[in-house]
C-alpha cells in the first residue's frame, strides 16, 4: 500500500497516558478572565418560541429579559414566536417586484409577532436542521419546502435570517438600555442554547447561522445544552438552605415539545403532546367538516383559540378552582351539543383533565424512575424543580406535589440512612421557580458570565482514532500488512487507540491529548483528515471493525505550521519527505467539543474542525454523562498548557 494515499490509521500516535485524564468533582468553575466588562447575551432559540436575556458583568444579579417585540402591540412577552416569512417587495415602476442588488427579487422579512393570522409563515424551522427530529402535527414539510423554494432559501438561510432579526432587535434594545457609547466600548458575548440530543451537524449549522446573523465568529460563540442551562439557573435560583453535598435535585424541564429530566445530568427525552390532544379534542367536539372549515377559512379564529389554550389553560388550569374552561372561537355559530356558546367552546374540568392526565402520568412515571435510580445507588433526592412552559402549569404542580410529597419530609438536620433513601414513602419537595418559562435563557447568561457548572462528565462510549504501526507477526494478521516506502518497513493500519474509555470521567478544564506523527511527500497536501470513532461495547477492540461508529471527521489544516517545525528525512533510496509531530487537545463542553492543534508545545493560530460525516446511527443518549455533543471551529488562545508525553520509537 502506498503510504502517501489517504488511509485509515495513517497517523502514528504517541504513547497515551490515561492517568493524565483524571476525574474531578462537580462544582463551579469561573472563567479565567472575569474582570473585563462585558455584556453576556443568552439566546434560547426554541422550537415554537425564542427568548433573549442579557446581563452586564458588573451587575451579575440584574438579568434583563427582553419583553418587547416588533408588532407586539405594546404587550410584553418573555418570548417571541419562532416564525419567519418572506414576501417580494412590489416595484414602484409597475412590474411585479423590485430587484435586489443580486438581480433577484427583493424580499421583505416578517418574523415573530408581525404576522396576521391568515398569513403564511415558516414554523418550527429549527427542527429542520436535524433530520432525526419529529415535526409537530401543524408543520408540513412539503409546505415548508415549497415556501423555501419560492423565495430561493435554504433551511440554514431561513434560520440565519430569523437569528439576524433576533440579533438586530437585541442590539437595538441593549443600545436603548445602556446607550450607544457604552455598547460601542463594551464586549458583547453571545451564548446559544441547543437541544441536548441535537446532532453534531445540527449544532454546527446553528453556529454557522448565528455567525452569519452577526452574533460573532464561530469560535467566539458559546453553546450550552438547554437542559443544562435550565439546571444552571434553577440551582442558583432556589438555593434551598437544606441542600447538602451529595444531595440530588431533579430538574423537570417541561417545554413546548419535550420533557427533559435532569439530575446533574439529562436522563430522558420524551415527547410532550398536550397541544395535539387539544386539537384532537376540538376536532371531535365540533366535527371534521366545521374543524376543516375553521382551519382553512377562519385562521384567525383558530389561532385565537389555540393561543388561549397555550397561554392560559395550559399554564393556569387548576381543578380546584375551575369547574369549566371557556376557549374563544369567535364567529363559530352556537351549537349546544358541541358545547359552542356565544363564540366559546365550553370544556368541563373533567374534559381538560382528560387532555392533561396522560402527559402528566408520563412525566410522573419518568421522574419516579429517576428518583428510584438515585435512591438505589444510595443517593438522596431532596427536591424536584419544574421549569419550562408547561413547568408553569398549576395542574402539573399539584399532581406532582400530590404524588411525591404525600408523606411528611424528614428532618433537614439529619442525613437520611440508606434504608430511608430507598423508602417509597419518602417525601420529595416540589419547586416551581417564578421564572420557569425563561429558566433556559437565564441559565445561558449565567453560564456565559460565571463559567461552567459541570466540571466532569462521564463517557458512556469509548472514543478514539485509528492509526498505523509497525507490523508484528506475533500480534497482527499477515493479510493486514503493507509496505511503507517512506518508513521502509512493513506496517499495519486500522489499529485503534482509545483516548477515552467507556465510563471514564472527563474534565472540561483538563484536555484529552491526541498525539500524532505524519509524513508528507514534496507537494503533498497539508490538509489531513482523521475520523473520531466511538464504540458502545464494554471492551473496545484493538483494530477497526464493523459496528464502530464514525462520529465525525476532523479536518486539520497544517499549512499554518511554520516550515521550521517540520523534520526533513530521506529514505535509503534517496526519496525525501517531511515529518511533523503534532497534538490535538480535545476539551469537552456542555454542547460541543473544542479542539486545539499544538506543534512543539505551542498552539497554532488557524486550526479548523469541520464536521464532514454524521454519525452512522442517531446518538442514543441525551445525557450530560455523554461526551460527544458536537464539533465546532475554534481559533485558539496562547494560554492553554501543553502536556508532554512519550514519543514513539517508530513512525508511519
Secondary structure: helix percent: 10-25%
Instruction: Work out the strand percent.
Output: 25-35%
Radius of gyration: 28 Å
Taken from the alpha-carbon principal axes, the silhouette is: globular
Count of distinct structural domains = 4
The largest pleated sheet is described as: 6 strands, antiparallel
Total of DSSP H or I helical runs spanning 4+ residues: 12
Number of strands: 30
The overall average pLDDT, rounded, is: 73
CATH topology of the largest domain: Nucleotidyltransferase, domain 5
pLDDT < 50 stretches: 1-35, 265-275, 408-416, 605-652
The top-level CATH class of the largest domain is Alpha Beta
- Separation, N- and C-terminal Cα atoms: 12 Å
CATH superfamily placement of the largest domain:
ATPase, nucleotide binding domain
Architecture (CATH level 2) name of the largest domain = 2-Layer Sandwich
What does this structure look like?
- There is one protein chain.
- Strands 1, 24, 27, 28, 29 and 30 form a 6-stranded antiparallel beta sheet that branches. Strands 2, 3, 4, 5, 9 and 10 form a 6-stranded mixed beta sheet that branches. This protein has a 5-stranded mixed beta sheet with strand order 13-12-11-17-18, sandwiched between helices.
- It is globular.
- The chain is 25% helix and 27% strand.
- The two termini are 12 Å apart.
- It is of the alpha+beta class and 652 residues long.
- The longest helix is centred in the middle third of the chain and has 28 residues.
- It has 4 domains: 162 residues, no CATH class; 167 residues, ATPase, nucleotide binding domain (Nucleotidyltransferase, domain 5, 2-Layer Sandwich), CATH 3.30.420; 127 residues, Nucleotidyltransferase, domain 5; 82 residues, no CATH class.
- The protein contains 12 helices and 30 strands.
- The N terminus and C terminus are likely disordered.
